[in-house]
Amino acid sequence: MEGESKEWTLDPETEYRFELDPGESLAVKLIHGHAEVFGAELAANHPYLFGQECKAAVFTWRGCTIEMSHPSTEYVSEETPMAAYANLHIAFEQMRVRALRDLRGSPVPEYERDKPTDPPRVLVLGPENSGKTTVCKILINYAVRAGQGWSPLLINADPAEGGWAAPGAISVAPVHSPLATCSPGSPLGTAATSAPTALSSNALLPLAYWYGHSETKRNPLLLERIVRNIGENINDKYQVDLQGRTAGLIVDTPASFASGHRSNDDRQRLIRACVDAFKINTILVVGHEKLNVELNRNYGSHLTVVKIPKSGGVVELDHLYRERVHNYQLHTYFYGQRVPPPAGISSASLGGETLSDIILSPSSTIINFGDLSIFRIGAESMAPSSALPIGAARVVSETQAVPVDPAASGSGLLNAVLAVLAQPANTDEAERYDEEILDLPIMGFIVVTNIDIPLRKMTILAPNQGSFVGRTAVIGSFEWQE
Ligand SMILES: Nc1ncnc2c1ncn2[C@@H]1O[C@H](COP(=O)(O)OP(=O)(O)OP(=O)(O)O)[C@@H](O)[C@H]1O
């Protein structure tokens, strides 16, 4: 690397941690040895770029030398929970091998005869900023690196996380190759995009449903329904992909599943929904004693509940940072990832892609009000049922789709992020039902950038050109402006 850079040698089982400020980018190159970022290996002599306020760590099992530019915050830590995470990975790997052996009818060694043959189906729970998403990523990356051809499912049940879609979506994707970390704009790796060139590395094809809000307390009933829908989809997949089932699955959850939820009942119901929908057999509790005891009491008799250490490297993310990350995610969705490399770096890769491959060009189109049917799920501001006065009935239920009239003042549509839903598979009118809209997956996202009430037209930004006539879109509470 030219320009200002320095070389650091890391001892075995240590990690180099960095935190980037807004507008800052960092390039890291591995010179000697082996190193990984949240479980994804770095190739030698190749600059990796990080940006958009990324906070991460380069870990080495056996020692390495890295060269990097100057981030605003950096330090080396000798205390990491990686050995504990690696032990977990080994236990999960054994479960996968036993599941595959059982499927193939291969001989079972004597000492393994009594062991269960279920693959790992893991729910990760923990308070805010405990590193849940990072643990999920490390475990998934170790599984795909194992060289056994596993493609475990990663489920993002945290609506604030964004995952592979826009924030507000809940999604699942089979992961075939390690998930790169380069920006919080794409926290779980890169999904397939509308770019004309196919992505060379890890283009994931997620299945996503629209929840539409960052907080689970906005509409726990809707969230529960989405979790159950994703569970049903996975079961359908497993019916035909018996070998795929043996790789297991990992579920990342929001912090509100662990604590701080307004209603403890909602929290318990959402955990229960995940356990049932994904047939969870292992719960990992990241550094939270009380939650560990609670979950052991509720689930310990029929599934494994393990408390795992929290990494000292996890960064406390505040509300404003999270809002900026939502903006990065939406910007990335429409325009691709743009991280200007630090001075002196010309060829680098961002999340495994060459820089020019991940620039997208969205399209701005004017459509008629009648082209698109827009709905909101539940009333705009909704107290949970439990907060209503005794005997009071709700006029609009939490899961009712209410039409939104773009001509009405206060429609909330200007700058709103809308999820455009897939068409119902069943076009037979007799098979349609009231709440069908809740069960349709997302096809893509659009943003309303202008509304012309006299002409009954609106301008929308979409990832590519195409007609919206007859489509259904759902508004949530996310807004985005360039
Ligand atoms: N070892 C580490 N070194 C440096 N940064 C880290 C490390 N582990 C995690 N981080 C960073 O800390 C931040 C929070 O981690 P993460 O998103 O995994 O936590 P979480 O518990 O899922 O958060 P949430 O509160 O959103 O549920 C992320 O930016 C992540 O990249």
Fraction of residues in β-strands: 25-35%
Q: Which structural class should the secondary elements be placed in?
A: alpha+beta
Mean pLDDT: 88
Helix share bin: 10-25%
List segments where confidence is low: pLDDT < 50 over at least 5 consecutive residues. Answer: none
Bound molecules: adenosine-5'-triphosphate
Distance between the termini: 33 Å
The overall strand count is 25
Neighbour order of strands in the largest sheet: 13-12-11-14-10-15-16
Count of individual helical segments: 7
Outline: globular
Sheet having the most strands = 7 strands, mixed
Radius of gyration: 23 Å
Explain this structure.
22% of the residues lie in helices and 26% in strands. The chain has 482 residues and is α+β, with helices and mostly antiparallel strands. Helix 1 (82-104) crosses helix 2 (132-145) and helix 3 packs parallel to helix 5. It starts with 5 loop residues before the first strand and ends with a strand. The mean pLDDT is 88. The chain binds adenosine-5'-triphosphate. Adenosine-5'-triphosphate (ATP) is lined by residues 15, 17, 55-57, 126, 128-134, 158, 254-255, 311, 313-315, 317.
